[in-house]
Amino acid sequence: MFKKFLSVINPLYKPICRKTIKKRIKVISSNVEETIRKNLSVSDAVNTTVYIWTDRKMRLFLGITAHIINEEGNKLKLNLYTFACEPFVGMHTGKHILNTFEKIVYKYLIVSKVEYIKLSPTTLLI
Asked: From what superkingdom does this record's organism come (predicted)?
């Protein structure tokens, strides 16, 4: 239906293939992840906020935001990076949240830099 609409508007336009878009998204995602990893690696300390929420279909997700302070010239700048937003399977127990959190911070090589972990007020522990 959408392709037909596009052909009416501009018969010369050819939409991008789904596979091409998928490849481009993977490359962009990889580049963003590497940039975040690099920015977190130069920081001495990383403070985090952990969020757990459900979508409209009642699927659980866990998100982690890193808060770091970098020196840019003579000024200090607060930078925030949401470096995790993953499906969260299982109970909202502290142990399960911690295990998932640890896997993610090990992936980003910041486990020794995490100084503070804040659970979002909407995150309920059972």
From this structure: Eukaryota
pTM over 0.70: yes
The 10s digit of each residue's pLDDT in 12-42 is 888 888 999 999 999 999 999 999 999 998 8
Rounded to whole angstroms, the Cα distance separating 122 from 30 reads 30
Phi/psi zone of residue 75: left (φ > 0), alpha (ψ -120 to 50 degrees), beta? beta
In contact, 36 and 48? CB cutoff 8 Å = no
In sequence order, what are the beta bridge partners of 72? Answer: 75
How many Å apart are CA 93 and CA 77, to the nearest integer?
34
DSSP H helical segments within 17-107, as ranges? 18-41, 94-107
Q: Do residues 78 and 65 touch, judged by C-beta distance below 8 A?
A: no
